[in-house]
UniProtKB/TrEMBL annotation:
<dbReference type="GO" id="GO:0042796">
    <property type="term" value="P:snRNA transcription by RNA polymerase III"/>
</dbReference>
<dbReference type="GO" id="GO:0000978">
    <property type="term" value="F:RNA polymerase II cis-regulatory region sequence-specific DNA binding"/>
</dbReference>
<dbReference type="InterPro" id="IPR036851">
    <property type="entry name" value="Chloroperoxidase-like_sf"/>
</dbReference>
<dbReference type="GO" id="GO:0004601">
    <property type="term" value="F:peroxidase activity"/>
</dbReference>
<keyword id="KW-0805">Transcription regulation</keyword>
<dbReference type="GO" id="GO:0001006">
    <property type="term" value="F:RNA polymerase III type 3 promoter sequence-specific DNA binding"/>
</dbReference>
<dbReference type="GO" id="GO:0019185">
    <property type="term" value="C:snRNA-activating protein complex"/>
</dbReference>
<dbReference type="GO" id="GO:0042795">
    <property type="term" value="P:snRNA transcription by RNA polymerase II"/>
</dbReference>
<dbReference type="InterPro" id="IPR001005">
    <property type="entry name" value="SANT/Myb"/>
</dbReference>
<keyword id="KW-0804">Transcription</keyword>
<protein>
    <recommendedName>
        <fullName>Myb-like domain-containing protein</fullName>
    </recommendedName>
</protein>
<dbReference type="InterPro" id="IPR009057">
    <property type="entry name" value="Homeodomain-like_sf"/>
</dbReference>
<keyword id="KW-0539">Nucleus</keyword>
<dbReference type="InterPro" id="IPR051575">
    <property type="entry name" value="Myb-like_DNA-bd"/>
</dbReference>
<keyword id="KW-0238">DNA-binding</keyword>
Amino acid sequence: MFMMRLKRTPTECRITWIGGRYPRINHAEWSTSEASKLNAVVSEDMKVKKPIDWAKVAETLATSRTSIDYMKHGLPPHRHSWTPEADQKLIKAVNICRIDNWQLVTRNVSEYANPTGILKEALNTNLGFFYSTVPKDAGCTQVFPFSQ
């Protein structure tokens, strides 16, 4: 009989237990009320430009969640914003990586750019200008791999 032996450190086991198995930790979906209370506490700290003490937030709200859980849900997600510098990075990334590797292109543009979201749409739309001289029936699959 084949038996796989996984070696876990006590710290790894403790993290897994507290993060996902410990019955006293609230692992339920976030309610609207709970999210609103969290946003109010975080907004107050951000107004005064004070670092957020997530352990204190967990203690204040007392909903049996971990401080990491509050941090994940309390911080706004980062979004990529287009600037002239980002445009230049995009042109450089496409010249280096080509447009058949969106993951690599986006990594060179911004850590917050999403290769399946707005960046892909922008590339497919705007690169048409650069490649408009290539006829659709030329069989060039490298020009627009997603849109044609």
